[in-house]
Amino acid sequence: MLEAWFHRTLPTGSAIDITSLIVFLNGTTDAPHFLMELIQGGPSSLVVLLDLFPRRDLPPHPDYIDRYYGATGVDSHRQSIARIPQVRPYVSPSLLVRSLWSPTAVVVDVQCGEGNESVLEEIVIGQLASSAMAALLMSGSSTVRGAWWRWRRRRGRAWWLVTR
107 near 94, Cβ under 8 Å? Predict the structure, then answer.
């Protein structure tokens, strides 16, 4: 498990905060690796990346797709996140960055508008946290689930970034 937190004050005076949780599993399971990244550039905006990195090349392994992505209903959580009014799909302007995400990644931009920090907090603690946990449960890996709970417990209620 790798966790990281990065804070940088920008030349404009604003700041950017990035929190990452990456869990790579050993060879005893075929379950996908897990990545969650939260990038906050302001108190009411957030870019969220949830990804289950496949351990196999997906096109030639439809059975792997069915087992870890199709049969688990993991895409229903992406659809649920997409229905949140403040959420828009995020597309990085960098081809390199986009190439790093798996085809199963959920990458969204949450924009709540100035003065709506509490709305962002509700979205993150509610729908985004439950979708991240559901992805872990669907991965079938108790190692990943345990890592998630240890990471979240260390951060308490404010496990996500708040720049105030």
Answer: no
